[in-house]
Amino acid sequence: MGNEDKTSINWYPGHMTKARRMMEEEIKLIDVVIELLDARAPIATTNPDIGKIAANKPRVVILNKSDLADYKANVEWVKYYKTQGAQAMILDSRSREGLKNVKTLIEEATKEKRERDKKKGIIARPIRAMVAGIPNVGKSTFINAYSKKSSAATGNKPGVTKGKQWIKLGKDLELLDTPGILWPKIEDRTMAEYLAYIGTINDNVIPITEVATDLIIFLCTNYQGALEDRYNIETNDDAYEVLKEIGAKTGCMKKGGDVDAEKASRTLLDDFRNGKLGRITLQWP
Fold it and tell me: Which domain covers residue 250, as residue numbers?
C-alpha cells in the first residue's frame, strides 16, 4: 500500500459510535455472542472492541463466506477457534449450507447458563443471542437465512444495518442484530489491505488501483495461476503492468486505446470478491 502515511486509516462514521454504545448497553441481556467473521481473513475481520464488550459471554464464531475461502484453511481456522474456547463453524449463508449446525453450537455454548437457570427454577426462557461483526461479513444474510425470512436489511456494501433489531425465532431463541462496527483506526497496513480486498473498507477510502496492485502481488506470491487462469495472461514482477494486462483482456479501455486502470481494478476486485479467481484465503492460523 505504498507509503507509511497511508497505513493508518480512519473510517469511523458517527453511527458506529452509537452502535458500540448500544452493544455495551444490551450486552447484559445477552446469553451468547454470535460473531461473524469473513473466512478469507478471520483475524482482519475480528473487531477487538466486540471481544472487549462481550468478554464474559460464551461465544460462537461463524466463519462466513466459507465457499470463497481455501477449504484447508477453513478446517484449520475452526480448530484454532476451538482452542481459544469458542464454539466455531464454517458457513456459506447464501446457500444456507451448514445452517443446521448453528443451533447445536448455540446450545453447546449456553449449556452452563441453562443449567444454572434450571437450578434457580427458570425454565423455558428463550436464549438471547447477539449477532455481531464488522461491516460486510454477511450478518444480515445470515440472519435472513437462519430465520428463513427477510428480517434484516442486506446489501453488499458496508454499513447497511444501522439500528438494532430483535428477531424472535420460535420459543427458544431471540437474536439481536447489531450494526457492523469497525474499530476507529486501522493501524496495521496488511490488515487494512485485506479489508480493502474483501470490500469491508469502502473503495473510495484507499485509491482503488493501489488496492488492486497489492492484491496482484499477494496472488502472484500465494496463489500462482489464479490470475493466469482467469484472464489468460502471463504475470511478472510489475503489478501495475499485470493490472494493465488484465484491463486489456477484459475490455477496460479508454477512448484512444489506453487501459482504464481504475476500471480494470474494479473488475479484478469484483472477480476476487465473487470467487471468480478460485477459493482464496488471505490469512491462515
Answer: 207-273
